[in-house]
Amino acid sequence: MKITLDTVVKTFDTFRAVHGVSLEIESGELIALLGPSGSGKTTILRMVAGLEYADSGSILFGDKDATDIPVRDRGVGFVFQHYALFPHMTVAENIAFGMKVSKRKRSREEIATRVTELLALVRLEGLGDRFPTQISGGQRQRVALARALAVDPRVLLLDEPFGALDANVRRDLRRWLREIHDQLGITTLFVTHDQEEALDLADRVVILEQGRIVQEGTPEEVCRRPNSPFVTKFLGDAHRLVGPVTSGSARVAGGTVAVPSLPDGQAEIFVRPADLSWGEGDIPAEVTRVIDRPDGRRVVVRLEDGTTLELDMPPETRIEKGDRQTLRVRRAHAFPLA
Amino acid sequence: MRRRVLPGLTLSLGITLLYVGLIVALPLGALIFKAASLGPEDYWRIISSGRALASYRVTVLSAAAATVFNLVFGLALAWVLVRYSFPGKRLVDAIVDLPFALPTAVAGIALTTLFAPNGWFGSWLSEAGIRVAYTPLGIMIAMAFTSLPFIVRTVQPVLEDLDPALEEAAQSLGGSDVAIFRKVILPLLVPALLAGVSLAFARSLGEFGAIIFIAGNQPFETEITALLAFIRLEEYDYQAAAAIASVLLITAFAMLAVTNFLQARALRYTARS
């Protein structure tokens, strides 16, 4: 099911949560709405679900205007941030709920068969008789998904689906959600504030700031060509350097950075830890701290003007506090400073 | 003894047990002791006399009716107070506690004045052929009045804590408002409703002050058990009074035990495996 949002606006009391957002989601796509808290991403998701009504603009499901269709008739599966499982029902009863209350009558056997199928799909065979308090967070998350899928939704919507889980479970569930999506081919929209999660999982990432879409594109597009300082910073660790540009080269902290596409004038330059080389280039720096991690060493350095940068080095690197060397910025995202 | 992190167990437990003993258990023990000083035959004769049986019937039926009324009305009131905002909401919320604060005799006199055949409500009702004052209906109204806060105040906090996402989830799964209320909200309120019902019913069984003014107190018709015990007291027949009171006590106790059991059953989903 293709979903189209056309200049959708939502205001709560006096706070404008969503400013004229337009977005097209192709049938079968897996889309991430990514943004910091207060960026309006959850509000957009809830409007697509019909849990909030848009003040103006329209939401289309296929060619049909769904803007005013109430949630119970919209045919969406919604997975809530804290799962919202019915605590007094067993896992199987939770999954069966939608089928039991639906206008379409199903026989008891039909429901039982479908529940068994869904339990197998979410790999929770044998846990049907447990209550939600008796299973782990990751399992609850999967029950919530099975419950949403039980009513054969045309669209699957997930609000911060992995937010409440610990890192390892989160990574597993992410892979698994991707598999389920590929298997079912259902149009899926999920909200997250975790850029890694969005990039890991989605076909396309929509980045929001203060109720507006600031950039959308595949993970590759947004990572390689962020279109603003906000997107650059939001997508991952980035240090900001400021300096004047003359003929494609910026002067920063006693050295230079190549910024070929930039016009002359003040510029802000963002560099990531992996974009820096130690012992090359012409920016003088002193090591202030070395942080060891399983996959390498992160080195914190101070430049002449007091700016602190971090860079990643292989685990074998011999380096310690107090070492002085020069740095080279191999790669940077630079924007003219207005 | 195992070492504990939280201090003051011995002291606080000691004080609590002492007070429970002095304030609750001692008088009840004295009551049972007094009743037990009758022989089994005398005891049985007193508690199964025609007049006593009639008083049980009036008391239990009125209390049951009042509790059912409060179950519906108290749930509705709690619902409205939690779910909606309207002018005067805080006032209504405060008024709910009034039956707790008011001396019950005052409530009884006020209700009698209202419902007497020449009172504000009573004159209207008697035109319609309904008599309230000096009938079991009056007893029921007095009981409903004094026990209303129990159900409202037990259901209200649970309703406030109900996660709105549960209802949204049920809606997104296609549930109608009626289905959501019946299958999601009501089952979650059952433990609180049971607690409220048992308190309200127990209070109604023992209510005295509010009832005696409106009931008319005709033996065999509108005489409640608590009044019968009081009459025996006034006749200096302490043993009979204790015997009749013991029936009330045992009934209330059995009822609380049953609702506790039902509550535990309704809450079984909170148990971790």
From TrEMBL, chain A:
<dbReference type="InterPro" id="IPR027417">
    <property type="entry name" value="P-loop_NTPase"/>
</dbReference>
<dbReference type="InterPro" id="IPR008995">
    <property type="entry name" value="Mo/tungstate-bd_C_term_dom"/>
</dbReference>
<comment type="similarity">
    <text>Belongs to the ABC transporter superfamily.</text>
</comment>
<dbReference type="InterPro" id="IPR005666">
    <property type="entry name" value="Sulph_transpt1"/>
</dbReference>
<keyword id="KW-1278">Translocase</keyword>
<keyword id="KW-0813">Transport</keyword>
<dbReference type="GO" id="GO:0043190">
    <property type="term" value="C:ATP-binding cassette (ABC) transporter complex"/>
</dbReference>
<dbReference type="InterPro" id="IPR003593">
    <property type="entry name" value="AAA+_ATPase"/>
</dbReference>
<keyword id="KW-0547">Nucleotide-binding</keyword>
<dbReference type="GO" id="GO:0015697">
    <property type="term" value="P:quaternary ammonium group transport"/>
</dbReference>
<dbReference type="Pfam" id="PF08402">
    <property type="entry name" value="TOBE_2"/>
</dbReference>
<feature type="domain" description="ABC transporter">
    <location>
        <begin position="3"/>
        <end position="235"/>
    </location>
</feature>
<protein>
    <submittedName>
        <fullName>Sulfate/molybdate ABC transporter ATP-binding protein</fullName>
    </submittedName>
</protein>
<keyword id="KW-0764">Sulfate transport</keyword>
<dbReference type="Pfam" id="PF00005">
    <property type="entry name" value="ABC_tran"/>
</dbReference>
<dbReference type="GO" id="GO:0005524">
    <property type="term" value="F:ATP binding"/>
</dbReference>
<keyword id="KW-0067">ATP-binding</keyword>
<dbReference type="InterPro" id="IPR003439">
    <property type="entry name" value="ABC_transporter-like_ATP-bd"/>
</dbReference>
<dbReference type="InterPro" id="IPR050093">
    <property type="entry name" value="ABC_SmlMolc_Importer"/>
</dbReference>
<dbReference type="InterPro" id="IPR017871">
    <property type="entry name" value="ABC_transporter-like_CS"/>
</dbReference>
<dbReference type="InterPro" id="IPR013611">
    <property type="entry name" value="Transp-assoc_OB_typ2"/>
</dbReference>
<dbReference type="GO" id="GO:0015419">
    <property type="term" value="F:ABC-type sulfate transporter activity"/>
</dbReference>
From TrEMBL, chain B:
<feature type="transmembrane region" description="Helical">
    <location>
        <begin position="128"/>
        <end position="152"/>
    </location>
</feature>
<keyword id="KW-0813">Transport</keyword>
<comment type="similarity">
    <text>Belongs to the binding-protein-dependent transport system permease family. CysTW subfamily.</text>
</comment>
<keyword id="KW-0472">Membrane</keyword>
<keyword id="KW-0812">Transmembrane</keyword>
<comment type="function">
    <text>Part of the ABC transporter complex (TC 3.A.1.6.1) involved in sulfate/thiosulfate import.</text>
</comment>
<dbReference type="InterPro" id="IPR005667">
    <property type="entry name" value="Sulph_transpt2"/>
</dbReference>
<dbReference type="GO" id="GO:0015419">
    <property type="term" value="F:ABC-type sulfate transporter activity"/>
</dbReference>
<feature type="transmembrane region" description="Helical">
    <location>
        <begin position="12"/>
        <end position="36"/>
    </location>
</feature>
<dbReference type="GO" id="GO:0005886">
    <property type="term" value="C:plasma membrane"/>
</dbReference>
<keyword id="KW-0764">Sulfate transport</keyword>
<dbReference type="InterPro" id="IPR000515">
    <property type="entry name" value="MetI-like"/>
</dbReference>
<feature type="transmembrane region" description="Helical">
    <location>
        <begin position="240"/>
        <end position="262"/>
    </location>
</feature>
<dbReference type="InterPro" id="IPR011865">
    <property type="entry name" value="CysT_permease"/>
</dbReference>
<protein>
    <recommendedName>
        <fullName>Sulfate transport system permease protein CysT</fullName>
    </recommendedName>
</protein>
<feature type="transmembrane region" description="Helical">
    <location>
        <begin position="94"/>
        <end position="116"/>
    </location>
</feature>
<comment type="subunit">
    <text>The complex is composed of two ATP-binding proteins (CysA), two transmembrane proteins (CysT and CysW) and a solute-binding protein (CysP).</text>
</comment>
<comment type="function">
    <text>Part of the ABC transporter complex CysAWTP (TC 3.A.1.6.1) involved in sulfate/thiosulfate import. Probably responsible for the translocation of the substrate across the membrane.</text>
</comment>
<dbReference type="InterPro" id="IPR035906">
    <property type="entry name" value="MetI-like_sf"/>
</dbReference>
<feature type="transmembrane region" description="Helical">
    <location>
        <begin position="56"/>
        <end position="82"/>
    </location>
</feature>
<keyword id="KW-1133">Transmembrane helix</keyword>
<dbReference type="Pfam" id="PF00528">
    <property type="entry name" value="BPD_transp_1"/>
</dbReference>
